[in-house]
Automatic annotation (TrEMBL):
A GO MF term: transferase activity
A Pfam family the protein falls into: CoA_transf_3
Cleaved signal peptide residues: none
Keywords assigned by UniProt, alphabetized: Transferase
Gene3D superfamilies: Crotonobetainyl-coa:carnitine coa-transferase, domain 1 (3.40.50.10540), formyl-coa transferase, domain 3 (3.30.1540.10)
Annotated organism of origin: Massilia solisilvae
Protein name as catalogued: CoA transferase
């Protein structure tokens, strides 16, 4: 079961993040993923930290093989078609029209392999006024409304990890798995299409439901106010996050921990609806109290009272966290060129197991000779 997709061959024409993430998720489940890269530098993500093996590339391309093909050449296209004739999945994130210009139309691919599941990831879809625009994470975040729920209009600054890129890759792998299941029943291939705009909208549906049902426009404070999510700086400058939700016992326990019984009598905070309405005022009141003790002290008190909380860990702190260490989330991966690096296991277990340790992301063209011999490429 830990190689649930064993026997499935995926040909990935993926660059940067969305398609490589989808391919990696399939590889983590046991699929064989062959990454086709251009001979002139390969996937652009390789070069983000110099040379051709950046941390960015390594993070999204484990468990894959790499072959160099120039799809602008007739020999490169012929080799790709040879691979696709034996493949189960084609995964690509080119702009609309690129595959057709290469002669790789749906009809042409169906003729080569009628059982092929072709997943195409684009920025905005195959049709529409934005069809030909370039799309990256910040663009999809802005257009989908996600950014409006995260940015302070007075001091707008994009922060944090990629969201639109990642969720699009996840939805793509989800669509591929569904198409493979249908093919198992019918024997027919499929065309799966995913775009970053719609994936980003689907990732956060609450704001649209609130607007259509209540006429309320979501802001950066909307969700956190309803869930009563806070982050407070402590005496040592470190942060603690708490989530008080609508369960009254958490609020009661929290007030006892911070020794602020006056908050229970404050007319602004009598019940979840009022605490939501006066979220900013409550945050300000409690923040003053949190500055009186260190993060370690607050964490000990909160843990003893069953309040939902967490230290706001830095990346090094996450790697040393006892729960993370117990779970075995990280492992050491040895690469023949880049040496030992820390890698992240897939976050899914099957029958209590994660499966075999992943292979590190490949060097550019690392498997050229072996794949050419196996598939009898030109």
């Amino acid at each position: 079961m830990n190689n649930a997709l064993e026997g499935i061959l995926v040909i990935e024409l993926g660059t940067v993040l969305t398609a490589p993430l989808a391919g990696m998720m399939l590889a983590d489940l046991g699929a064989r993923v062959i990454k086709v890269e251009h001979p002139n530098g390969g996937d652009p993500f390789r070069r983000h930290a110099g040379k051709l093996y950046s941390p960015h590339f390594a993070s999204y391309n484990r468990n894959k093989e790499s072959i160099q093909l120039d799809l602008q050449s007739e020999s490169g296209k012929a080799d790709l078609l040879t691979l696709l004739a034996r493949a189960d999945v084609l995964l690509e994130n080119y702009r609309p029209g690129v595959m057709a210009r290469l002669g790789l139309t749906e009809a042409a691919l169906a003729q080569v392999n009628p059982r092929l599941v072709w997943c195409s990831i684009t920025g905005f879809g195959a049709e529409g006024p934005y069809r030909d625009r370039p799309c990256y994470d910040a663009v999809a975040l802005g257009l989908s409304g996600l950014a409006s729920q995260m940015l302070d209009p007075a001091r707008p600054a994009m922060t944090g990890p990629t969201i639109s890129d990642n969720v699009t890759g996840m939805y793509a792998s989800y669509g591929i798995l569904g198409a493979l299941m249908r093919r198992h029943r019918t024997g027919n291939g499929a065309r799966v299409e995913v775009n970053m705009l719609e994936a980003s909208i689907a990732f956060s549906p609450e704001g649209f439901a609130q607007y259509s049902l209540l006429g309320a426009v979501a802001t950066p404070q909307s969700r956190v106010a309803i869930s009563q999510s806070h982050a407070f700086p402590c005496a040592d400058g470190a942060l603690v996050a708490v989530h008080l939700s609508s369960v009254e016992k958490f609020w009661q326990a929290f007030v006892a921990v911070i020794e602020r019984p006056d908050l229970l009598e404050d007319a602004r905070f009598l019940g979840p609806e009022l605490r939501t309405r006066h979220y900013a005022a409550l945050n300000e009141e409690v923040a003053r109290t949190f500055r009186t003790r260190t993060r370690e002290q607050w964490c000990a008190r909160l843990a003893a009272s069953d309040v939902p909380f967490a230290p706001v860990n830095t990346i090094p702190e996450v790697m040393q966290d006892p729960q993370v260490r117990q779970a075995g989330t990280f492992y050491q991966a040895a690469h023949p060129e880049r040496g030992t690096m820390v890698a992240v296991h897939r976050p899914v277990t099957i029958d209590g197991e994660r499966g075999p340790t992943a292979r590190p992301a490949p060097l550019l063209g690392e498997h050229d000779a072996a794949l050419r011999a196996e598939f009898k490429l030109g």
